[in-house]
Amino acid sequence: MRALVVAAVLSALSCSRSPAPTPVAPTPATPTPSPATASGDHGPAFLADDWQEALRRAKADGSILFVDAWAPWCHTCWSMKRDVLHQPALAAYQGRVTFVEIDTDRPQNAAFVARYPVRGWPTFFAVDPTSGAILAAQGGSMSLAETTAFLDRALTLRASSEPVDAAPAAGYRALQEGDAKAAAARFEEAAAVTGPRRTEAAAAAYRAWLEAKDHANCARSASAALGVVEGSAAAGDTAAYLVVCAERLPREDPARARALATAQATLEALVKAPAQGAAVDDRADVMINLAELYDEQGKKAEARALHEQRLRLLEDDARAADPLAARVHDYARMNSYLELGRGDEAVALFRARIAQLPNDYEAHARLATTLFKLERYDEARPAAERAVELAYGPRRLRYLFLLADVCGKRGDRAGERTALEQLVRDNDALDATLRLDDLAAKAKGRLAGGKPG
Fold it and tell me: What is the CATH T-level fold of the domain 45-156, as seen in this structure?
C-alpha cells in the first residue's frame, strides 16, 4: 500500500500550554519479543542486531545469511514475525542458514544499512557471508511457502559454480553503489527472463526507478510487472507502487490516468478474490489503497464501505490473538477508526495496549497521533513525550516533530522550539545513512520563523 511504500511515515502531528520538558537522550530500549517467540513457537533462532557476529557464525559453518531488516513501527514486519518467521518449518534450515534480524533504526546497525540499503519495510536479504553479495532480496511480506522457496533459491545459487543470475547480481551491486537507474535497467533485464527470480527482479526494477525519481519509468515498469509478478502480496504491492509513481506524473499526462486505472482494477480484483496465501495484513493493505483511490475520486460511500470491511477483518483477527500478536493491526485499525469517525475507539485501543505493553513506543506515538487528530492536545502531550523517551534513531526524530506539533497547537512556543532544536541535534548526531535531512530542514525552517512543516 501507499503507506507501505512510504514506509508508513508518520504524518508529523502533535504540547501543553506549559513548556514541554527537554527531550531526553535516546533510550536503548530492550527489543520487544516477537509474538511467535513469546507464545512458545519453535522456529529458527534469530540473532538480533549483531551483523558482525552473524557473519562470523555463517563463515564458520559455511551457511548463508537470512536477514530480516525490520523496524518496530512496521506493521508488516510484525505480521511476518507472527505468521511466518518463527514457524517450525524454517528451523529445518538452521545449519545451512544463519538467521539474523536487524532493526534498521538502531544506530548500532548503521554500517549494515549503509551496505544493504532498505527501501521498504520489511526487506529480506539472503547474503553470501564470504563475498557479501546479495543472493536474493524481497521487499514486503511473503507466505511461509514463498519464504522457503526464497531460501531454496539462495542456497542453490550459492552452491552453483556457474555464473548464473548476472543481471540481478549487477542490479544489487548498482544499488549498493548508489546508482538506482543502472540498477533498474539490470533488474528489468532480469525480469524479462522467465524463471524463479522473475518476481524479485520485476519488483526490484520499479522500486529502483522510484528511488531514482524517474516516475514515468517507474509507472511503466510497475504496469509491466503486474503481468508477471506472483505471490501472496506481490500484485497488491505492485499496484501500490504504481499508484505512487502515477500520482507523481503531470495530471495532463495520459500515462497517469492509464496507470491509475490499471492499479484500481488490480486492487478491486484483489479485494474480491485475495491472492492465495495473502496474510490479513496484506489484504488490509489492498483495502486501504483502494479506499484512498475511491476517496480521491469523491466516492465517499465506497471508501467508507471498504474501511468497514477492513475493520471487521482486522478486529476478527486481533480478537483471537494475545496482545503481542494483536498489535500487528493497531496502525491499520487506527486509520480506519479515524476515517469512520470512531476516534474514541482508537484512543481506547491504544490506552489498553499501553497498559499491556508500557514500553512499546509505537503505542504511545499512535495514541498521541489519534488524540492530535481529535484535537485533544492536552492529552496528546504526555503520550508524545513518552514516545520520544522510548524511541531511537530516525523514529525518535519523527516523534520529536510530533511533539513539536502538539506544542504548537497548544500555543506552547517554548516547548515547540525545544522539540525542534532537539530534532536537529539528534539528526546531526546520527550516521548519514540514518539521518532524516528533509525532516531536519523542516524543523530548521520552523525555527527560523518559516511556515510549519
Answer: Glutaredoxin (3.40.30)
